[in-house]
What does this fold into?
Amino acid sequence: MADALVVYESMFGNTQQVAQAVAEGMAGFLSVEVVEVGAAPAGLPGETALLVVGAPTHAFGMSRPNTRQDAARQGAPDALVSPTIGVREWLAELEPAAQSRTAAAAFDTRIRVPLPGSAARAIRRRLRNLGFTLAGPARTFSVKGTRGPLADGELDAARVWGRALASSFVDLGQPSQGRP
It folds into this structure.
């Protein structure tokens, strides 16, 4: 069975919940590990077939130290899920895929209003630039407000998305032609 790694950044727990739901969807097809970005490795284990990266959208893109500080002021700082680094910093240190056949996918959480910007699209771009094969378009999961909660049905949608991503790897750990 191929391996997958889900790396997430989360301030109030919403993105963490989505990451866990994505992993649940993938679990029938892949061996999955879910890791908070502060504990994520700078180099992927060699057996990683699929990397999924998720983060909240802050100020129209990936979080920065100042946007994480703003988020901390909006909630209980000791209750923050990702108090140290964000996905932006982790991706800056992540080793390139270098002839790896590891595929990657990106997701974000953001408020359900028509605003520009997406952490998922920025993550996807960085993963592509690092040499990963992209396993489909970026995916957004909606929250009802800055601190959440997730919109109704989003955890089920995350499980379905995870299942679709992972099912493309059932043939010897490689993405199929019909990617999600």
Q: What stands out?
A: Strands lie at 3-8, 31-36, 48-56, 103-111, 133-134, 139-143. The CA atoms of residues 11 and 146 lie 10 Å apart. The longest strand covers residues 48-56. Helices lie at 14-26, 65-74, 87-93, 119-129, 154-167.
